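User: Could you go from structure to sequence for me? I need the amino acid at each position, not a summary. C-alpha cells:
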C-alpha cells in the first residue's frame, strides 16, 4: 500500500520563501535547539536525538494534519533556513496555533519573522479556512510577545491552555480573518 504525501505549497513574500521542511534543514534546526535562544520552545534535552525527533514532529504535522509549519529563508538563499513559522496543532492542544521561531541569531531584528508569520497566518486563514488562531507564548519571551502584538494579536486570558507540564503560557489571539481584509 502506498500513502500519498501531502502537497506542501511554497509561499513567497517580498524577501522570503516559505517552503517545506527538508532533511538539509536538520543541522540548522539542531544548532538552534542547542542554543539558549530556543529555551522557550523546547525542554531540557538538547541532544541530537531529541532535536531530530522534534524536527520529525514538525515534518509529520504535514502528513497527519495536511498542514504544518514552513521553513523560511531568503529568496536568494532558499537552502539556508532562517527559521520556521505557520499553522501548528498538536493533537492535545485546545486550539490551532500560529507559531514562529528564528533559528539564526543573525536573522533577528530584520523583520523576517514578522514577514514570514504574516504570510503563515494568511495561508491559515485564506487557504486552510481557519476562522481563528492563537499563539502560545512563554511570559518571558519578550521578542515573541512583541511580534504577536505587532501582528495585532491581543492577550486572551480566558483561552484554554495546552498542558506544558504545569508551565503557564500567555495566549495571544490573532485578529479574525475578516478584520485583516
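Assistant: Here is the amino acid at each position, in order:
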Amino acid at each position: 500500500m502506498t500513502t500519498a504525501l501531502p502537497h506542501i505549497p511554497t509561499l513567497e513574500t517580498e524577501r522570503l520563501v516559505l517552503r517545506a521542511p527538508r532533511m538539509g534543514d536538520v543541522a540548522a534546526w539542531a544548532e538552534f535547539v542547542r542554543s539558549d535562544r530556543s529555551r522557550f520552545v523546547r525542554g531540557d534535552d538538547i541532544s541530537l536525538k531529541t532535536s531530530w525527533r522534534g524536527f520529525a514532529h514538525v515534518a509529520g504535522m504535514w502528513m497527519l494534519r495536511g498542514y504544518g509549519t514552513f521553513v523560511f529563508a531568503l529568496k536568494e538563499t532558499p537552502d539556508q533556513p532562517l527559521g520556521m513559522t505557520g499553522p501548528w496543532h498538536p493533537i492535545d492542544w485546545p486550539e490551532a496555533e500560529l507559531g514562529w521561531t528564528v533559528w539564526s541569531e543573525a536573522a533577528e531584528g530584520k523583520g523576517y519573522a514578522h514577514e514570514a508569520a504574516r504570510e503563515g497566518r494568511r495561508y491559515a486563514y485564506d487557504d486552510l479556512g481557519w476562522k481563528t488562531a492563537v499563539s502560545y507564548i512563554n511570559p518571558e519571551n519578550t521578542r515573541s510577545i512583541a511580534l504577536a502584538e505587532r501582528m495585532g494579536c491581543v492577550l486572551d486570558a480566558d483561552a484554554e491552555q495546552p498542558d506544558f507540564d504545569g508551565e503557564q503560557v500567555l495566549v495571544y489571539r490573532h485578529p479574525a480573518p475578516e478584520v485583516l481584509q
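One structural detail worth keeping in mind: The chain has one domain: 11-180.
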